[in-house]
Amino acid sequence: MKQKMLVTPRYNVKKLFEELRHKIISLKFIPGQMISENDIAGSYGVSRTIVRGALQKLKNENLVVVFPQRGTYVSYLNYRQIMDLVYMRSVVEYDICRQIKNKLDLQVREKLERNLLKQENVCASIDNIYEFNKYDEEYHQIYYEAAGRKYCWSFMQQFQASYIRYRLLDMIEIGNLKEVYSEHVEIFNVITGAGKANLREVVDRHISGNIVRLEEKIKTIYKDYFA
User: Fold this and answer.
1) Which uninterrupted H or E stretch holds 71?
2) Quick one: 6 exposed, middle or buried, by C-beta within 10 A (0-12, 13-18, 19+)?
3) pLDDT tops 70 at residue 8
4) Which of 74, 130, 192, 205 is most deeply buried (CB count within 10 A of its CB)?
5) 94 C-beta neighbours (distance < 10 Å), count
6) Assign residue 193 a region: left if phi > 0, alpha if psi is -120 to 50, beta otherwise?
């Protein structure tokens, strides 16, 4: 009698959550789009229990909303919240960069240099936007932690559901991740004393530039993405 082999599912709750989160963050699943439990279960070959677990994690990050008897939908972007977060980050990150200017220890500097190298390796193609965004977030987090503001960073992460997608929307419109990478290098150079640009102007341009670039398109092309 042949013994049955146990087949480990390709996706558990955590892995399916990460896959669906990737699709939402990178705007492959657009705001307002319905997510069918049955379709996801069929596409990924998993049980509806696993799908529900993944959707619950997405709900916890405010990336989806669940309407009883109606279904689960990708959450819309909250424009007012985005503008307030852009303002907060512009103010806080300038102050953080000012505090650590010319004071980075060797370990932090090397960590930033490694991060910038990763950005450079993936910035050539817009197809790498999700991976680039991961390194982008890591880059800013290093500054917060270097200034002893890791809890400030954690606090801001609570409002990332709209902001991350807004930033990726901006990167898609720029069509060239090298521009964002160059701004990161410019900030690094000013902080380490290798660049002579005005720190406030550099930080403001980097954090707030997407408002100018996307202002008109939010009213036209992407108006249905926002609540």
Assistant:
1) strand 71-74
2) exposed
3) no
4) 74
5) 17
6) left
Pairing of strands 34-35, 64-67: unpaired
Closest C-alpha among 170, 201, 211 to residue 97 = 201
- Set out the domains of the chain in order of their start, with CATH numbers: 13-74 (1.10.10.10), 79-225 (1.20.120.530)
**pLDDT for position 3:** 52
Which pLDDT score, from 0 to 100, does residue 102 have? 95
Q: In this structure, which amino acid lies at residue 18? A: E
In the numeric block, which tokens belong to residue 201?
Answer: 């102007």
Instruction: Note whether 190 and 103 are within 8 A (CB).
Output: no
Rg value, the chain, Cα: 20
Residues 104-113 as b or e (16 or more Cβ within 10 Å = b) = beeebeebbe
For Cα atoms 57, 61, 67, give the angle at the middle one, nearest 5 degrees: 75
H or E segment to which residue 65 belongs:
strand 64-67
Q: Which two tokens stand for residue 135?
A: 């390194």
For tokens 């009213």, name the residue.
Answer: 219
Secondary structure of residue 67 in the 3-state scheme: strand
Q: How many angstroms separate the CA atoms of 108 and 105, rounded?
A: 6
